Known about the structure:
The chain is mostly helical. The chain has one domain (about 1-355). The chain has helices at about 1-5, 20-50, 75-90, 95-120, 130-150, 175-190, 200-220, 220-225, 235-255, 265-280, 285-290, 295-310, 320-330, 335-355; strands spanning about 160, 165-170. Strand 1 (about 160) and strand 2 form a beta hairpin. The chain is globular. It starts with a helix and ends in a 5-residue tail after the last helix.
Amino acid sequence: MLYHFLAPLAPIFGPFNLFNYISFRCFGALLTSLALCFIIAPAFIRALKRAQVGQPIRDDGPKQHRRKEGTPTMGGALILISMMVSTLLWGDLNNVYLWITLGVVSLFALIGGIDDYKKLRTRTHRGLSARTRLLLEVMACSVGLVFLYDFIGGVPPLQVPFFKDVLVDLGLFAVPFAVLVIVGSANGVNLTDGLDGLAVVPVMFVLLCFLVISWVVGHSVAASYLQLSHVPASGELAIFCAAALGACLGFLWYNAPPAMIFMGDMGALAIGSALGCIAVITRHELVLLIVGGLFVVETVSVIIQVLSYQLTGKRVFLMAPLHHHFEQRGWQEATIVVRFWIISAVLALMGLATLKIR
């Protein structure tokens, strides 16, 4: 919005020319979402406590989690409000990629919100059935992908990291693969969100990586220099990443151990779907597997646990997702969280390295 109002006035007032630079608007979007989160959070948390919107705890979960029962949940709304307001304020509202991402995020937030509401109403950890939620998520993805592929005029080939000339035409599997990326990313973040601060920091690392990737692939000179597929106008997604980064940073202030508020499915599914959507648009789906490797491992641990129990009646892990396994082995929560943060930071650096190592 500011871009449309102030950038055209640059010939009259020179400093307004800064609004033509994505880097400046990224900085503004980050600070705006961070400030909004700090402004909204105290009253929001008090309102949730008054409404007794407390997180139900699994009966079969780690015993030490019982003390967290009743902690306000649906804190993802803080991230969403701050992120969306900031994006609309600093982004180019004529950019289709921005609207597609915001649309997918909104749909996944709605799904997560319904799931959270059902858990709160029944006072259990059971929300929507897995089949229902998966169906809704696939439908939400499909809506976004229809608009995306209609806008770009087809389905682009898959770009393979570390190889400059390797492009894979997935053919009929292209759309299911894109759906898998978005749905997998959303649920990976959701599964990781089980300890105070565990999910939000890795999300921030991934957002930072895709802020860089969005800017690079959207800049014809930078993309050519790094031998990447140029995606015109995708640089505006860096604004979204910056706004989401600031919102997550503000949320972390209240979600740091001991958490004053939980993200909930609304926030986890929304921000996870955003990561997948941006990866699809920038054609760096495989890089998301690297930088979001922690989410992949957490998801795979659940799949392995379920399949093993169904096929053999035995469990591979003491508890799934993986962070609960380490809790059951006696690791302190803070130890698990910090070590997982370190792993995420290393994976983020590896993902950024794919831009140059070819």
